[in-house]
Amino acid sequence: MELLDRRTMLRLSAGGAVAPVLAGRRRAAGVVPAAFSVPMTVPAELRPVRSTRDADHYRLVAAPAWAEILPGVRTPVLAYNGTFPGPTIRARAGRRAVVEYVNRLGEPTTVHLHGGEVWPEDDGGPMDLVAPGTARRYRYPDRQRAATLWYHDHAHHLESEHVYRGLAGTYVLHDRHEAALGLPSGRYDVPIVLKDARFGADGGLVYLPGDFGGRTTILVNGRPQPYFRVAARKYRLRLLNAANMRFFNARLSTGDAFQQIATDRGLLPAPLTTTELPLSPGERADIVVDFSRYEPGTRIVLRNGFSTHPATDAILRFDVCGRVRDGSRVPERLAALPALRPATVTREFRLSMDERTGMGFINGRAFDAARIDFTVARGAAETWRIVNDNQVIEHNFHVHLAGFRVLERNGGPPLPTERGLKDTVMLPPGGSVRIRVSFDPRYRGDYVYHCHVIDHSSMGMMGRFRVAGHR
User: Fold this and answer.
1) Which of 315, 399, 418, 435 is 20 to 30 Å from the Cα of 380, by its Cα?
2) pLDDT (tens digit, 9 = 90+) per residue, 198-245?
3) Domains identified in the chain and CATH numbers
4) What order do you get walking across the sheet with 189-197 strand by strand?
5) Residue limits of the Plastocyanin-like domain (predicted)?
């Protein structure tokens, strides 16, 4: 499943960022610890501050904080509730989640529930800002199927740095159907938040727009290339690519297969046995790894098949410990996908970046908050063709509100790992995909679509659309 090669992708840092990147590597020398020298931590879970008959209420505070990312070093970050990454919210389908968001930063922010089906006023759009020192409530209906979603800052021109410095967290939506399958759960259901970073000599995070080549430290749940002690049993790992620009292709160092059970928007119809899992920024996938096949004391490295630098090859090491009782299973059937509804409209979106200026475009136009690019009939299904017009730079594509199915890639079938419900899809240089986008008739209003290589959306690779009327 070779989708991308090991190109350096330094040209992602458009407009002369290469020299600062190389200088940054020299400044950071000796700061980053050796791989597998720190334990992986599991993000804290955010508990409701109160619950009513049909809703759980949460409080999320964005503020400057200190985090020990590198051992013994206090790094200034931007954090939700003081943690890097933000706490995991575990919600239940059929129960509303009401999140009171408090902005204690010195800049405006907004919170987008990536993958959530919500009304426009709760979508956290790029111009729907929460001013410093103020608060607002986001209301999430949670009427969709179980899935690994995530929340992150989306304030236009600020989102890239805000997410890079820590304003992101996992939002796990559970439902009764999934609970009845017997999949690994509890402490064996683990969020794995993947990022990359560049550190200065003082241990601080160095941010430069488009600085793909300089972010050579891989972080897992906020720790640099950690080790994770696992029991010799099955684990459900919820992989989230929360990096600004880096693509991952997860592989076990043993070459052994694992089972993918879900894509962005929920369970696959059946488990997919695979040896690799590509994820572009914003994409999620749930996998089950059975560590009972290894003897205690075995060490297995999760590697990145898309590594562009020796330091970015290793992601995480699993250290297999003792055997424990395992009552979980991965059934042959997981969840039926919704019927693929016929499309009434076909559209095309061409993504491009000016490699001299760093400006990003969709169909030749940069983002304009006052412009509506097209209107979708409420409840419609449409076929969209998305093309990456750049020949060196990777892009991807994310649409708010609606989920989609990948119909074809480069004129052929989609990758096996992307044959479920999606909301984000990768686009290698010169590549194209066709997707069937389905809109829930309960929602109408204005939303955005954009490249989720988030430095690119910040550079203008984004647009607005309106859902209105009826099919």
Assistant:
1) 418
2) 999 999 999 999 999 999 999 999 999 999 999 999 999 999 999 999
3) 10-32+182-323 (2.60.40.420)
4) 223-224, 217-220, 189-197, 234-241, 284-290, 258-263, 266-274
5) 68-177, 355-468
